[in-house]
Amino acid sequence: MVHLLTSEVQQLLHNKFVIILGDSVQRAVYKDLVLLLQKDCLLSLRQLKTKGELTFEQDKLVAGGTFGIMHNGIDYREVREFCSGHHLVRFYFITRVYSDYLEGILQELQSGEHAPDVIVMNSCLWDISRYGPDFWSSYLQNLESLFGRLDQVLPKSCLLVWNTAMPVSEKPRRGSNQPKGQPRAKPADVFKANFYSWEEARKHHFDVLDLNFHFRHFKKYLQDDGVHWNEYAHRKVSHLLLAHVADAWGVELPRRQCAPVGNLINYDPECKQTGQVVKRQPHGDQDLLAFPVPLPLPPPRPRALLPLPPPLPPPLPLPLLPTPQPLPIPLHQVRPPFPLYHHDSNFPSNRVFHSDQFAFQTDFAFGSQPSIPSFPSPCYQQGAPVVHRGFPRYLVEGPYMPWRGRPKRPKRRVPAHPQSRPQ
């Protein structure tokens, strides 16, 4: 699991247009991403629960929310947008996976000035709990209509990531503010809806991030209502989402050991004037980690977020040397022996000798000879010096030898018949 800093997230999403569509859980995903683009801290509990506010961490409310009537019905609308010098993030609150309102959003994106680079979307809990007992048939039909429409509207360069719905608890905890009589989504129905949405997204070759799988053992990070999650879980969602986007774009993220969640500092907007920084403690488990600690890894590379270079072509296989074959003939070729003839002292030099094999004339010129086949030189016959180890060295006899091997002078012998000197 990667742990990204604000500077690295800014570089990854540089000049990118990100759109998030979904319910209140996806709104928390939007808020954590906006906060992570500006500072290395977590959301506060009040920021997670507040909806429809005019501004949040330098973003603005575009439509719905406090501009209209605040309610919890299926017609609630909220559009938020965060825009900086090099980042654009927008959020649409939806209560159904496909509707006339969603069709209007798609048309707005299609005719807009900027095409989206990344779309993160999920719609499940409202679909299976607020639209009557026959919600399965309408949900399956809306899923098919949604992905078919997205395949037509979105450009090829746009990355669509479908988030599966996160786990929910069977009953809310004590002290929760869950309204009585409000229908709730069952865990079995959520699991079933995730399977249908995954199957439909796979048919249209869209990416799926299975958040239900990643958080199946982290239900202790659920809030009291049993549906929404705390700030530590949403930071892990942001890291999972950004890692998926980086992998789709072929960007290598830095590898570092995950930090404990207690080391992450929460920023409270109320402390802005006093300049205080508030640290929030986890719910009864200060030593827990937001995600498992991986094994120690090598230090990060200096060029972490740059695209990977194209892979080098595989090296060509080296040609195999031919196996030396035994020589057909010896190295030192000897001229074929001539037939022996008796020497004739009366044999004139200008006479031509006729034979079945050779013909010699006075100039001793050879006649036509059969061509000698050319054989390839053996592999051990090289121009460079060759040392044959294990054999005695051959020394040429003569006066020019090493000092210890210099021969002695021969003794002078007296001739048998000495000649007299001239007087």
From TrEMBL:
<protein>
    <submittedName>
        <fullName>PC-esterase domain-containing protein 1B</fullName>
    </submittedName>
</protein>
<comment type="similarity">
    <text>Belongs to the PC-esterase family.</text>
</comment>
<dbReference type="InterPro" id="IPR036514">
    <property type="entry name" value="SGNH_hydro_sf"/>
</dbReference>
